[in-house]
Automatic annotation (TrEMBL):
The protein's enzyme class: hydrolase
Protein family per UniProt: Belongs to the low molecular weight phosphotyrosine protein phosphatase family.
Protein name: protein-tyrosine-phosphatase
Gene Ontology molecular function terms on file: protein tyrosine phosphatase activity
Annotated catalytic residues: C8 (nucleophile), R14, D124 (proton donor)
Reactions catalysed: O-phospho-L-tyrosyl-[protein] + H2O = L-tyrosyl-[protein] + phosphate
Phosphotyrosine protein phosphatase I domain boundaries: 2-148
Biological source species: Paenibacillus mangrovi
Length: 154
């Protein structure tokens, strides 16, 4: 089983959107038994909450399920449990790397999946309100990540 963890700040906007989109792509590809997807936040403010209303609205618009997604905080044990840990911005990346057990071999900056894009961090729609922009980035990046997993792990 290949495992992917998306990480953002509060785990209610970017990372749960990526989780839902990646789960959808994994299901469409027929890899549900081979790829596990989760998300977490570096902060603890929203533990147990469902995704932000803006995230839910975008996922509803594209008929992508977010059933069962609840915010949780990143834990040091995630380094051993996940093959790919994908951070949404430099702050998330830095915070994760400071935790005990951190390893660089399974950490990815999300926008490194989209090197041709001008943005180098995924903007946080909690502050910008631009959930559509984030959806477009997540959709494109998750497609690239799925191809990367196929090449490296399958």
């Amino acid at each position: 089983m290949v495992s992917v963890l998306f990480v953002c700040l509060g785990n209610i906007c970017r990372s749960p959107m990526a989780e839902a989109i990646m789960r959808h792509k994994v299901k469409e590809a027929g890899y549900e038994e081979r790829i596990q997807v989760d998300s977490a936040g570096t902060g603890d403010w929203h533990i147990g909450h469902t995704p932000h209303q803006g995230t839910r609205q975008m996922l509803d618009q594209y008929q992508i399920s977010y059933e069962g997604i609840r915010a949780r905080q990143f834990a040091g044990t995630d380094f051993e449990q996940f093959d790919y840990i994908v951070c949404m911005d430099n702050s998330n990346w830095s915070n994760v790397r400071k935790l005990p057990g951190a390893r660089d071999d399974n950490l990815i900056k999300f926008m490194d999946l989209l090197p041709e894009h001008e943005l180098r961090e995924v903007p946080d729609p909690y502050f910008t309100g631009n959930f559509e922009q984030v959806y477009d980035l997540m959709d494109a990046g998750c497609e690239v990540l799925l191809g990367k997993i196929r090449t490296e792990k399958m």
